[in-house]
Amino acid sequence: MYIITMTLTEQKSKAPDFMAAHNDWIASGFEDGVFLLVGSLKPQPGGVLLTASIDRALLELRVTDDPFVREGIVVPHIQEFSLGQTDTRLSFLGDCTV
Q1: Which residues touch 7 (CB under 8 Å, ≥6 apart)?
Q2: Which are the contacts of 31, defined by CB distance < 8 A and separation ≥ 6?
Q3: Could you tell me the residue ranges of all domains in the chain?
Protein backbone atom coordinates (compact mmCIF):
# COMPACT_ATOMS: atom_id res chain seq x y z
CA MET A 1 0.00 0.00 0.00
CA TYR A 2 1.04 3.60 -0.42
CA ILE A 3 0.47 6.95 1.20
CA ILE A 4 0.88 9.85 -1.20
CA THR A 5 1.24 13.38 0.08
CA MET A 6 0.91 16.28 -2.31
CA THR A 7 2.37 19.58 -1.21
CA LEU A 8 1.29 22.79 -2.89
CA THR A 9 3.96 24.86 -4.62
CA GLU A 10 4.23 28.53 -5.57
CA GLN A 11 2.08 27.57 -8.58
CA LYS A 12 -0.95 27.04 -6.30
CA SER A 13 -2.71 30.03 -7.86
CA LYS A 14 -3.19 27.86 -10.97
CA ALA A 15 -5.20 25.27 -9.00
CA PRO A 16 -8.68 26.64 -9.81
CA ASP A 17 -7.94 26.35 -13.54
CA PHE A 18 -7.17 22.63 -13.20
CA MET A 19 -9.50 21.64 -10.33
CA ALA A 20 -12.12 19.94 -12.55
CA ALA A 21 -9.46 17.85 -14.31
CA HIS A 22 -7.82 17.04 -10.96
CA ASN A 23 -11.19 15.89 -9.57
CA ASP A 24 -11.70 13.73 -12.68
CA TRP A 25 -8.27 12.19 -12.06
CA ILE A 26 -9.29 11.42 -8.46
CA ALA A 27 -12.60 9.89 -9.61
CA SER A 28 -10.71 7.68 -12.06
CA GLY A 29 -8.47 6.43 -9.25
CA PHE A 30 -11.52 5.39 -7.23
CA GLU A 31 -13.24 3.83 -10.25
CA ASP A 32 -10.13 1.76 -10.99
CA GLY A 33 -9.95 0.56 -7.38
CA VAL A 34 -6.58 2.20 -6.76
CA PHE A 35 -7.55 5.02 -4.38
CA LEU A 36 -8.96 4.11 -0.98
CA LEU A 37 -9.23 7.59 0.48
CA VAL A 38 -8.39 11.16 -0.44
CA GLY A 39 -8.25 14.13 1.90
CA SER A 40 -6.68 17.47 2.70
CA LEU A 41 -3.55 17.97 4.77
CA LYS A 42 -3.95 20.05 7.92
CA PRO A 43 -2.76 22.63 8.77
CA GLN A 44 -0.48 22.98 5.74
CA PRO A 45 -2.05 23.15 2.29
CA GLY A 46 -1.98 20.01 0.20
CA GLY A 47 -3.53 16.60 -0.10
CA VAL A 48 -3.12 12.98 0.94
CA LEU A 49 -4.14 9.73 -0.73
CA LEU A 50 -4.18 6.16 0.54
CA THR A 51 -3.87 3.62 -2.24
CA ALA A 52 -4.24 -0.10 -2.67
CA SER A 53 -1.20 -2.28 -3.27
CA ILE A 54 -0.26 -1.97 -6.93
CA ASP A 55 2.96 -1.99 -8.89
CA ARG A 56 4.93 1.13 -7.92
CA ALA A 57 5.81 1.98 -11.52
CA LEU A 58 2.12 1.95 -12.44
CA LEU A 59 1.31 4.14 -9.45
CA GLU A 60 4.04 6.60 -10.40
CA LEU A 61 2.60 6.82 -13.92
CA ARG A 62 -0.85 7.48 -12.49
CA VAL A 63 0.48 10.20 -10.20
CA THR A 64 2.34 11.97 -13.01
CA ASP A 65 -0.93 11.99 -14.95
CA ASP A 66 -2.57 14.19 -12.29
CA PRO A 67 -3.07 17.66 -13.82
CA PHE A 68 -1.90 19.25 -10.56
CA VAL A 69 1.39 17.33 -10.82
CA ARG A 70 1.82 18.00 -14.55
CA GLU A 71 1.28 21.74 -14.03
CA GLY A 72 3.64 21.94 -11.05
CA ILE A 73 0.83 22.90 -8.67
CA VAL A 74 1.78 20.12 -6.26
CA VAL A 75 4.85 18.03 -5.58
CA PRO A 76 3.93 14.41 -4.82
CA HIS A 77 5.72 12.16 -2.36
CA ILE A 78 4.94 8.44 -2.60
CA GLN A 79 5.64 6.36 0.50
CA GLU A 80 5.14 2.60 0.39
CA PHE A 81 4.25 0.79 3.59
CA SER A 82 3.40 -2.73 4.70
CA LEU A 83 0.15 -3.08 6.57
CA GLY A 84 0.78 -4.52 10.02
CA GLN A 85 -2.19 -4.16 12.33
CA THR A 86 -5.56 -2.53 11.84
CA ASP A 87 -8.51 -1.71 14.00
CA THR A 88 -11.34 -4.15 13.27
CA ARG A 89 -13.19 -1.32 11.52
CA LEU A 90 -10.39 -1.23 8.94
CA SER A 91 -9.71 -4.96 8.62
CA PHE A 92 -10.81 -4.86 4.96
CA LEU A 93 -7.58 -3.00 4.15
CA GLY A 94 -5.70 -6.30 4.36
CA ASP A 95 -7.38 -7.29 1.08
CA CYS A 96 -6.66 -4.07 -0.83
CA THR A 97 -4.69 -5.12 -3.86
CA VAL A 98 -5.39 -4.23 -7.47
Answers
A1: 41, 44, 45, 46, 74, 75, 77
A2: none
A3: 2-81
- From first to last of its 98 residues, the chain has per-residue pLDDT tens of 999 999 999 999 999 999 999 999 999 999 999 999 999 999 888 999 999 989 999 999 999 999 999 999 999 999 999 878 878 888 777 777 66
Q: How far apart are CA 93 and CA 49, in angstroms?
A: 14
* CA atoms of 80 and 97, how far apart (whole Å): 13
2-81: CATH topology is: Alpha-Beta Plaits (3.30.70)
Whether the model pTM is above 0.85: yes
Please report the DSSP string for 38-95 in residue order.
EEE-SSSSEEEEEE-B--HHHHHHHHHTSHHHHTTSEEEEEEE-------GGGGGGGG
